[in-house]
Amino acid sequence: MEGFTDIEGPVRLDWLELLGLAGLILLAILLIVYLISIFLRKKSETRTEGIEFRRSPLEIALERLHLLESEGSVMAADPFVVEVSDVVRDYLESSLQIPAKEQTSEEFLHELASRNRLPEILKANMPSFLQQCDLVKFARQALETTQRSELLDTASSVVRETDASLAAVEPEMEKEAGQ
């Protein structure tokens, strides 16, 4: 058989060629994994696209109070009362549409007094609650552990009872509007 060359033996690759081939295979695998992760991420985003995860003002306030309860003992008195007061003010601002954060305690209490159908707990507890907070903030009064606990308890009660009262008032208002 003339004109045909004999088959040569296996070609040996040196270690650099093997390393390059392994690198290309690894790169191809990483590219495939990356593309699959992008595909799965887009698929999950599509499923949750129209769903809005919004927490209620009550949930936000209670979470903040719980955090203060666990970490508040190491906070200085002034930042502690500012945060407790802000939790209550933020909750009332979002629930009652009162500009609570921009008002002084006196203005805020006047605003509460001028409103009809407010939960009784606001009228009963907010004056002393805000006064205690103001004494610490502005008169630099000391804040004992029991006072911290009392402020947290009052804040929690105000938020919970106001929320329950507002939830009970909404059906009544809907009835009145329907008549």
What are the SSEs and their pairings?
Layout: H1 15-48, H2 57-71, H3 77-96, H4 105-114, H5 120-138, H6 145-178
Helix amount: over 70%
Low-confidence stretches: 173-178
Count of helices?
6
Mean pLDDT: 84
Q: How large, in whole angstroms, is the Cα Rg?
A: 33 Å
Distance between the termini: 108 Å
Strand content: under 5%
Beta strands, count: 0
What is the N-to-C order of secondary-structure elements (H for helix, E for strand)?
Answer: HHHHHH
* Sheet with most strands: none
- Globular, elongated, flat, extended or rod-shaped: what is the shape? elongated
Helix/strand/pairing class, anyone? mainly alpha
Description:
With 179 residues, the chain is mainly alpha-helical. The protein contains 6 helices and no strands. The longest helix is centred in the first third of the chain and has 34 residues, at 15-48. It is elongated, with a radius of gyration of 33 Å.
Key structural traits:
179 residues; single chain; 6 helices; 74% helix; mainly alpha; disordered C terminus; 0% strand
